[in-house]
Design goal:
Strand content of chain B: over 45%
Shape of chain A: globular
Number of strands of chain B: 11
Order of helices and strands of chain A: EEEEEEEEEEEE
Number of strands of chain A: 12
Order of helices and strands of chain B: EEEEEEEEEEE
Oligomer: heterodimer
Largest sheet of chain A: 6 strands, mixed
Number of helices of chain A: 0
Largest sheet of chain B: 7 strands, mixed
Shape of chain B: globular
Helix content of chain A: under 10%
Radius of gyration of chain A: 13 Å
Helix content of chain B: under 10%
Number of helices of chain B: 0
Strand content of chain A: over 45%
Radius of gyration of chain B: 13 Å
Largest interface: A-B, 25 and 26 residues
Structural class of chain A: mainly beta
């Protein structure tokens, strides 16, 4: 079975500061990795995904993530955050060949002016 | 291209009743997945349908069921509602290939009194 651990439930940062949201996963077989964002009263929107190839993945809104197989991590980063990045962020894995997403508990990112 | 739509957006029911939620996927998408989101358990996979067949099922009791129609629209049904069924129910669609982005609807907020 697969599992995902998001190490921080809440991350407060100041506007224009860099941020890193941490994600570790556990799986005995190969998986695909995703980061989704959820704004208040909305569904989830894909930020980026890792299927194979380059371990540094760039996504929308200036976010990027690095896949580290040895540490089973997929941390999300942004060099300079904006007020509009205030949202909940979910890391997820998907078994290759399947559709089922297994999500972490989420990290609430709060941007202070 | 219209996004994933879910109806109704809000629903209030009492214990013991049953409820049916509807999801219309993006045109051309043949896979529809359902997720339950609660503050305590987070995002949990319910089931996935592809071409009218259930391909995968999560660990939910038999009170939770679903179906998919020939036009890919999907419904999920919860019978004998319990207080713990109060949640945001999200559906997601894609073409059905593992690793493809899943597009989420805004969800149906179910409150059980």
């Amino acid at each position: 079975a697969q599992s995902v651990t998001q190490l921080d439930s809440q991350v407060p940062v100041f506007e224009e500061a860099p941020v890193e949201l941490r994600c570790n996963y556990s799986s005995s077989v190969s998986v695909y990795l995703f980061w989704y964002v959820q704004y208040p009263n909305q569904g989830l929107q894909l930020l980026l995904k890792y299927l194979s190839g380059s371990t540094l993945v760039k996504g929308i809104n200036g976010f990027e993530a690095e896949f580290n197989k040895s540490q089973t991590s997929f941390h999300l980063r942004k060099p300079s955050v904006h007020i509009s990045d205030t949202a909940e962020y979910f890391c997820a894995v998907c078994l290759q060949g399947a559709q089922k997403l297994v999500f972490g508990q989420g990290t609430r990112l709060t941007i202070n002016p | 291209k219209a996004g994933v739509t879910q109806t109704p957006r809000y629903l209030i029911k009492t214990r013991g009743q049953q409820v049916t939620l509807s999801c219309s996927p993006i045109s051309g998408h043949r896979s529809v997945s359902w997720y339950q989101q609660t503050p305590g358990q987070g995002l949990q996979f319910l089931f996935e349908y592809f071409s009218e067949t259930q391909r995968n099922k999560g660990n939910f009791p038999g009170r939770f069921s679903g179906r998919q129609f020939s036009n890919s629209r999907s419904e999920m049904n919860v019978s004998t509602l319990e207080l713990g069924d109060s949640a945001l129910y999200l559906c997601a669609s894609n073409y059905g290939t593992s690793g493809n982005e899943q597009f989420f609807g805004p969800g149906t907020r179910l409150t059980v009194l």
